[in-house]
Amino acid sequence: MKLAPSILAADLADLGEAARLCEAGGADMIHFDVMDGHFVPNLSFGIPVLEALSRRTELPIDVHLMVNEPEALLEEYLKAGAARVAVHWEATRHLDRTLQVIRSAGARAGVAMNPATPVEWLGDLLPRLDFVLLMSVNPGFAGQSFLPYTLDKARRLRTMIEDFGVEVEIEMDGGLGRRTIRDAVAAGVETCVAGSAVFGSEDPVDEMNRLRRIALGETTE
Q1: Catalytic site residue from 33, 36, 62, 130
Q2: Is residue 96 annotated as part of the catalytic site, yes or no?
Q3: Which of 16, 155, 171, 175 has a 20 to 30 A CA-CA distance from 161?
Q4: From 11, 130, 173, 183, the catalytic residue
Q5: What are the tens digits of pLDDT across the range 167-207?
Q6: Among this protein's residues, is 62 annotated catalytic?
Q7: C-alpha to C-alpha distance for 18 and 26, rounded to whole angstroms
Q8: H or E stretch including 171?
């Protein structure tokens, strides 16, 4: 299981410290949410913030573009330091072309899917993906409650991946914490995004270690 703390839930006045905490907690990557106020009803980080963050950490930065027409600024985000980029199935009309741009820049290419979007729609696109990001809340705001039916989506997606015989990672984002992370991993999720659970805790470093142990079944609390 890989852990990707979401800095959207961190102290936004000190993202350098948030990156340091991620490193100290053994995070595998840093999740970086980009919101445009159109695809989702909120605004968040832009290219200059990604550039600054990439200079402060050695961890890969997992960029989630919650924006309409992500191809418009995609190359700029890639140049700014994105190691992985997920674009939304619902937000781009030329998904295959967009994935090619990501991969040609040497980054890992992913598709993000809203809770109500069926994983079956991925179809023949699976062999062209490095990962699928399943939203387990409706995108746009941190701190939402986990949607249990997304676990079945993860299980169905795992079956599809096995049937295609491809290596595609399942990532999940939204409401993951002590009560939900074990179920997500059991359903086939390999990378867990945790924001409020990590940065809303008294000790983010300890919480990252605790979440990993819970996910792996080494403890129940």
Answers
A1: 33
A2: no
A3: 175
A4: 173
A5: 999 999 999 999 999 999 999 999 999 999 999 999 999 99
A6: no
A7: 13
A8: strand 169-173
